[in-house]
Amino acid sequence: MNRIVDLITKELQAAFAAKAYPTDMVTASVSNRPDLCEYQCNAAMALAKKLGKKPIDIAKEVAEQLQHSELLGKAEAVLPGFINMDLDPRALRIYLQEMAKAEHYGVPKGAKRRIVLDFGGPNVAKPLHVGHLRSAVIGESIKRILRFNGDEVIGDVHLGDWGLQMGLIIEELRDRKPDLVYFQEDFTGEYPQEAPFGISELEEIYPAASAKTKYAADASPEEKERAEAFKARAMESTLKLQNGDKACRAIWRHIIAVSVGDLQKNYERLDVHFDLWKGESDAQPYIPALIEDLEKKGLAYESDGALVVDVMTPEDKMEIPPCLIRKSDGAALYATSDLATIVERQKLYHPDAMIYVTDIRQSMHFNQVFRVSKKAGLVEEGQDLVHIGFGTVNGKDGKPFKTRDGGIMRLENLMDEVCGCVYEKIRANRSIEEKEARKIADIVGLAALKYADLSNQASKDYIFDMDKFTAFEGNTGPYILYTIVRIKSILAKYEKTAARQADVEDLEPARTGSEKNLSLELARCNDVLGSAYTELAPHKICQYIYALANAFNSFYHEVNILSKEDEQEKRSYLALISLTKDVLLSCIGLLGMEAPDYM
RNA sequence: GAGUCUGUAGCUCAGCCGGAUAGAGCAUCGGCCUUCUAAGCCGAGGGUCAGGGGUUCGAAUCCCUUCAGGCUCACCA
Predict the structure, then answer these.
(1) What integer pLDDT is reported at residue A508 of this predicted model?
(2) What is the pLDDT of residues A447-473, one digit of tens each?
(3) Which residues contact A268 (CB under 8 A, 6 or more apart)?
(4) What is the signed CA dihedral for A595, A272, A111, A391, rounded to 10 degrees?
(5) Which residues numbered 312-371 in chain A sit less than 7 A from strand B, measured from CB?
(6) Which residues 39 to 58 of A reach strand B, CB within 7 A?
(7) Are the C-beta atoms of residues A169 and A202 closer than 8 Å to each other?
(8) Which of A298, A299, A373, A362 shows the shortest CA–CA distance to A336?
(9) What is the DSSP code (8-state) at residue A132?
(10) Fewest CB within 10 angstroms: A99, A116, A396, A542, which?
C-alpha cells in the first residue's frame, strides 16, 4: 500500500510532467506549517534556478494543473514558490478505510531477512542495573519493530558468562566455604546438583571478590601483595575452568543456573524476551579454529607477544588500533569471543544481519570486530553487521545514575520505586481496590520507565529523573496509556447499549478541524512505522504516538461523541477513535508496552 | 595529543539527507469539570539554535574554524 505522501507525490509528478517540467526532484511532504496547509511541495524553488524561471510561476502552473485532482481539496501556489495542498476529506476517508483493512496499516513489508539480534548482555552473577535497562528495552523494541516488518528475528541475551569474573567468584567461594567438595583435591564422586549458594549470596560474592583485587595507590606492600595473590588465584581458576577442570566447571554451572533463573525473572517482569540464552562461553569451542584460520590467511600476526589483526584501511582518517585476539599470556579476549560468536551464528543460523544493542562506548570494539569479520571472510558480502550504541543513563548531576546514597541502582529496585509511585497516584485519584491498583500500577509504571528511555534518541545520554518519570504529565508513557483508556471507555460504554459496534465502513469525511487533524495523523502511521523500521528508531514511534494522542485529546474535548443524536455521525466518530485506539495499541506494542482497561 | 559524539527556552528534550513565523513537556501565569476518566483541554510569556566564517534563492540542518563538555584510543568486558 502506498503512503499518503506517495499518492500526493504521484499527482504532483503528473502535474509537473504535464507542464513539461522534470519530475525527479518532485516530492510531497507533511507540511511544517499546519496553519497554512496539510502537505507541501518545494520542488518549484529548486527547479527555478536550473530553468531560469521564477519559482512562483512554476508553482502556479502546477497548482493550476492540480485543480482537477480528486485527492486534493486544495492546491495553491504561495510565495516564494511553495505549493500548499490540503487533502480532500472524502479521499482521506477512503485512505483511512483502506489503511485500516490493510495488514499492518499498509506498512510495506521488508525483505524478510533473518536477523540475529544481540541485546540484554547481562553478566552472570551480577544484578541487573539501570545500564541494562537500555539494552533490554531498546533491544526488545527493535526486535518487535523488525518482526512487525516481516523479518525473522532471533534474539540472543548473550550472557557475560566467561572470563576472569568466573575465576574471581570461584576463589571467593573457596575463601568463604573451603569445606565444599569442589575444593577437595581428592574428591572423586559426583558433584551435587544443588548450588551451594543462592542468588543473594552470589550477588554479594562478586563485588566482594572484585574489591579484593583492588588496592589504593598508597596501599602498603602487604595489601598490594594480598590483592595480587588473590588475582593470580582467580586467573589460575579461570584458566582451569577454560581447560575443563571438573570442579571449576561444576561451580560455574551452578553460577549460571542460579543467575539465569534470577535474570529470567527480571526480564519476564520487564516483558522482555529472548529466543536464545547463549553466552560468551558458547563461542569458546570455535576459538582455536578461528585463530588458526586468521593465521593461515596471514591476517593475524604477533605484536609485543600478543596476536593481533590490522583493521585500518588507507582511506581511514582516524587511527584504528589493531584488533587484539590473543593476549601475550595466551588467553582469549572480548574481541576473540565476539568473533567466535559470529562464526557460531554463521554456522547455526546464517543470518542476513547481526545487530548488536550495546553501550555506545563499545563502538570501537565492534568496529574492529566487524572489520576483522569482513577481512577474514567470516561473513559474506551482503550480510550486515550493525552496532546500535546507546548512551549512558545519567543522574540529575549529569554523572552516571546512582541511588541517593551513591550505590548502583538495581533494576528491580528501580521498577519497584516507579511502580510504587504510580500506585500511590492511582490510590489518591481513583477509587480502586488495592489489588487492582497494584496490577494497574505495574503496567503503567513499566510503561513510564520504558517510554522515558525509548523517547530519547538511543545514541544520546539521557538524564534519569525519577520525579519527572513518575509525574505522568505531558510526553510520557502514562499520558499515552491514559489516552487509550479514554478511548476504550467510550467504546465500552457505546457497546453496552448499541446493537452493533462501529467499524471503518461507518467512517465519514471529517467535519471539524480537530477531526480532520486526527485523521491526518492516523494517515501517516504507515509512513512513521516504515521509517522507524529502516532507521531502527523507536523514538520516532514515541514522537508519533504523542502527536496522535494529542490529536485525539483535542478531538475528544471538541466533540462529545456519545451525546450525538445522529446515529450515523456517532458511528463515524466511533470508527475514527476505534482506529486511533488500534494504531496506538499497535505502536505501544512495538515499544514493548501494554495498556490497561482503565486507570 | 588523535579521533569521535554532543552543545537548541530556566530545566528535560524533539527537529538535523536544507524550506515559510525553530517545536514539545516541565516550571511560571490565566481560563475550562451537573455532560464519554481534569493523569485532560484551551491560552500567555519565555530563543543570538555555543561563537565566528563559508556554500545556497533559502542554513538549527551542509562545509571550515574556535570554545565548552562527554566518550574512545592493544593485552578488562
Answers:
(1) 96
(2) 999 999 999 999 999 988 888 888 889
(3) none
(4) 100
(5) 317-319, 321-322, 324, 327-329, 331, 333-334, 337, 360-362, 364-365
(6) 40, 42, 45-46, 49, 55
(7) yes
(8) A373
(9) H
(10) A396
Query: Cβ distance A586 to A131 under 8 Å?
Result: no
Residues A391-417 pLDDT 10s: 999 988 888 888 877 788 889 999 999
pTM: 0.95
Which amino acid would we find at residue A159? L
CA–CA separation, A295 and A122 (whole Å): 32
In this structure, how many other beta carbons lie within 10 angstroms of the beta carbon of residue A150? 16
Grid look-up 604477533 returns A302
Q: Which three three-digit cell numbers place residue A25? A: 526532484
| Burial bucket for residue A257 (CB in 10 Å: 0-12, 13-18, 19+) | middle
- Reply yes or no on whether the pLDDT at A379 is more than 90: yes
Distance CA(A427)–CA(A225), nearest Å, equals 57
What is the three-class DSSP state of A118? Answer: strand
- Residues 6 or more apart from A115 whose CB is under 8 A from it? A146, A151, A152, A153, A154, A351, A352, A353, A354, A355
**pLDDT for residue A159:** 95
Chain B positions with any atom < 7 A from a protein CB: 2-6, 12-15, 17, 19-21, 24-27, 35-42, 56-58, 70-77
Residue A279: its pLDDT value, please? 94
Cα separation, A492 vs A501, whole angstroms: 10
Res A110 pLDDT > 80: no
Query: What is this model's ipTM?
Result: 0.95
d(CA A513, CA A525): 19
pLDDT at A238 over 90: no
Residues 273-302 of A with CB under 7 A from strand B: 280
Q: Which residue is nearest to nucleotide B5 (CA to C1')?
A: A460
Task: Report CA(A315)–C1'(B64) in Å, whole number.
Answer: 21
pLDDT tens digits for A298-351? 999 999 999 999 998 877 767 788 999 998 888 888 999 999 999 999 999 999
- Looking up cell 481513583 gives A430
Cα angle value A362/A363/A368 (rounded, 5°): 105
